[in-house]
Write a structure and sequence with these properties.
Layout lengths: L2 E11 L13 E10 L2 E7 L8 E12 L1 E3 L11 H8 L9 H10 L2 H17 L2 E7 L6 H11 L5 E7 L10 H16 L5 E6 L6 H13 L3 E6 L7 H7 L4 E4 L5 H8 L4 E4 L1 H6 L7 H7 L3 E3 L13 H12 L3 H15 L16 E4 L6 H4 L6 E5 L7
Parallel strand pairs: 1-4, 5-6, 6-7, 7-8, 8-9, 9-10, 10-11, 11-12
Antiparallel strand pairs: 1-2, 2-3, 4-13, 13-14
Helix pairs in contact: 3-4, 4-5, 5-6, 11-12
Length: 390
């Protein structure tokens, strides 16, 4: 396999504090990097770059690690633009529209779901996403959830079973029976196709006790744990996530001081989804409070048809800076290494020695432009070591 040297990098963000300026961003200027066997083998000043079989000229542009989108719902059918329009006219979001997507997704063919999911994944990649997580949760039957995970398996190894998204219409009057189905036959069928299990633990979704039972059963099957929490109201989901050592707890619109203390002391990552707050006209999650408390923060798109039809991580970064009071560097770190930590990955989200060679050459001299020029796709070239489908 050939080696490649990437030269004439105006600003290289590695996210490795042992490199460059010694900050969490691990930043170098007038830099170069060498890639061998799909991994970063050398990083340093451009003037010291070693010879390689091939040379890639960054043309004095900035280079960043590929984005890690750790929360998406890419496999779905149907459109809910009318709900967005209603919210912009003052209707409050309550997650009730999920059942509409369930109906549309159940009616779609496997080919239709695959085609549309691939199109959304391609949009994310074109914007610089090189690692992504994809959830099920839009069929809520045994075979339907398996089908969604199978489609997700054509996109990524980071597949999440979300059978506990909402209680479907046919179980509206017997939610205990649905929970029993989820922790029994559905989990048995879906666990072999997933790496993670997730529960929407919030108002109008699942209670803390129900989430504990579902996640406990999933953990017994060898799945890692994630949790939707505190998007619609404050509850006990964060305490549960920390108690179960979930990799990530996501949304977090409503937080109290004790939640901050719990997350600051835990390995559970606080994954924030400003696209959802934007599209639902909800308060933005308190990123500044989380960061100041010492919690680890990730940013993700939450791409889904109802509350965040967003396929641009650059847009998410711009929202986090403008609306959530994150610095541009904090937002970039959270969209790269933060997302990797939310997936408990050490090989992506950074460009330290040995990392996977997933990186983006920006159409800009500095990474700051991701926030400075909102709405612009600045990913000039996207490099991915592998498609990571398993």
């Amino acid at each position: 396999m050939t080696s490649t040297v990437v030269r004439r990098v105006s600003e290289l963000t590695t996210n490795d504090p042992q490199l460059g300026d010694g900050t969490p961003m691990g930043r170098l200027y007038d830099a170069a990097l060498v890639i061998e066997h799909g991994r970063v083998a050398w990083v340093g000043p451009d003037r010291d770059a070693p010879a390689a079989d091939e040379m890639l000229d960054a043309e004095d542009a900035a280079v960043i690690p590929g984005f890690v989108d750790s929360h998406t719902h890419l496999v779905f059918a149907g459109d809910r633009g009318d709900e967005f329009e209603a919210r912009m006219n003052g209707v409050r979001y309550d997650a009730g529209g999920i059942t509409r997507t369930v109906e549309a997704t159940r009616a779609a063919t496997r080919d239709e779901l695959t085609r549309d999911a691939r199109r959304r994944a391609r949009q994310l990649r074109d914007g610089g996403v090189t690692t992504l997580e994809v959830k099920s949760g839009y069929e809520l039957t045994v075979e339907g959830e398996r089908r969604q995970l199978a489609v997700a398996g054509e996109l990524t190894a980071e597949r999440t079973w979300l059978g506990a998204h909402v209680v479907p219409a046919e179980f509206r009057h017997d939610r205990d029976a649905y929970v029993a189905l989820v922790v029994g036959e559905m989990l048995d069928a879906c666990a072999p196709l997933a790496r993670w299990a997730d529960v929407f633990c919030d108002r109008n979704a699942f209670s803390v006790d129900e989430a504990r039972a579902i996640l406990g059963a999933a953990r017994a099957k060898g799945l890692g744990l994630r949790l939707h929490a505190n998007q619609l109201a404050h509850g006990g989901a964060i305490t549960l996530a920390v108690e179960l050592d979930a990799a990530s707890v996501d949304h977090l619109t409503y937080l109290e001081d004790q939640d901050l203390d719990l997350l600051a002391a835990a390995s559970t990552v606080a994954t924030l989804l400003p696209g959802a707050d934007f599209c639902t006209r909800s308060p933005y999650a308190p990123a500044r409070r989380l960061l100041d408390a010492g919690a680890t923060v990730a940013l993700a798109t939450d791409c889904n048809p109802g509350s965040s039809y967003v396929t641009s991580m650059s847009f998410v970064i711009a929202l986090a800076v403008r609306e959530m009071f994150m610095s541009p560097d904090e937002a970039l770190w959270s969209a790269t290494r933060g997302g990797a930590k939310a997936l408990r990955r050490n090989d992506v989200g950074h460009l330290g020695i040995g990392a996977r060679a997933d990186f983006v050459v920006l159409d800009a001299p500095r990474a700051l432009h991701l926030a400075y020029r909102p709405g612009t796709n600045l990913a000039r070239r996207v490099y991915q070591a592998s498609l990571e489908v398993a």
